[in-house]
Amino acid sequence: MIPTLYKSALHPREVRALLSLKIKGQRFAVPKEPLNTLAMTLNDEDFCCAALSKVSRSFAVVIQQLSENLRNGVCVFYLVLRALDTIEDDMRFPQAEKLELLRNFYKKSYDEDFTLQNIGDQEDYRVLLAHYDKVIRFFKGLDKGYRDVIVDITKKMGNGMADFAEKEVVTIEDYNLYCHYVAGLVGIGLSELFSASGLESPGLKSQHDLSNSMGLFLQKTNIIRDYHEDLFSDRTFWPKEIWGKYADKLTFFTENPHAPKSLDCLNEMVMNALGHLPDVVDYLRLLKDKSIFRFAAIPQVMAIATLAAVFNNPKVFTGVVKVRKGLAARLILYDLSLDDTLKYFKKYSRVFLRKSPAGSELHKQLLAWSKTLDQKIKEG
Ligand code: MG
Known about the structure:
Bound molecules: magnesium ion
Number of domains: 2
CATH class of the largest domain: Mainly Alpha
Strand content: under 5%
Number of helices: 21
CATH topology of the largest domain: Farnesyl Diphosphate Synthase
Helix content: 55-70%
Distance between the termini: 39 Å
Structural class: mainly alpha
Mean pLDDT: 91
Number of strands: 0
Largest sheet: none
Low-confidence stretches: none
Order of helices and strands: HHHHHHHHHHHHHHHHHHHHH
CATH superfamily of the largest domain: Farnesyl Diphosphate Synthase
């Protein structure tokens, strides 16, 4: 806590937010006992809530803001997709069995005896899968509208992950398709859950392109930020169609973090991600329910803050660049409105312009992009 406070010291509102989040956070505190112990004592619902706060601290806090019915649906949706991702990411798992499991995972949705032992590269993920029967029982208590969405998205995502377990991300088209499977489908599924809750219009679930962009903007931000970490775990998601213009091997950038070619490549990756932001604005404008709005908008503001931090930053190639935790705390605690969100987008769009050399091709692209963004913002 102290080092985090220190980083936010020049931002007094963030210090206040961090402190009150710590107090408020106790209601949604991560349980101290290991998840394995909790599995023995907690009922299905409480286990699912505890698992959610263990496997995703920040997401668990945002989810708490949703109305109870929708919250349970989103909690199960997250845990099911976390299970799928755990299978995808376990590199010790024999390929043939992995593909079979990814493609058929959705068929287990109603099987109360289904658990998986010893899969996952983190203890909490392994425990989640070992006690997956609890997730299934909680799932079975959800409204049919929610259950159908969760099964459908699980089927599509599992098949997409299996396709990409066998091939690499090479072209920008591959990159968009992979991000669609692992994140765009989350955006599409969430819109369907929002419509099913009755809190948003029935038409929201048909906004596939905008919902997809919501997921792609977040996923591409993570892929850019995680360059270094992913490089050292057997998988890479940067498309060769982009990085191949600047280097012969993806490792060139970590070996030459300050080279102009490395930074140009990074900035092109960021520019590609920023292309989804106008859709994000259009999507957020469609939301009516305040709690759903905050749930949807907070990760998007965190993403643009992350992109601004990684833009033109050689540290991406040698470690992890993180956004101050105080910003997340502030966004979570204060009633983030559409206006506030758009102000954040404008503020960060100026950072990209400032950090790119005037007259460069990139600067021209950014100018055109920020013009489009400004128009979108004014439309409301
Ligand atoms: Mg994965």
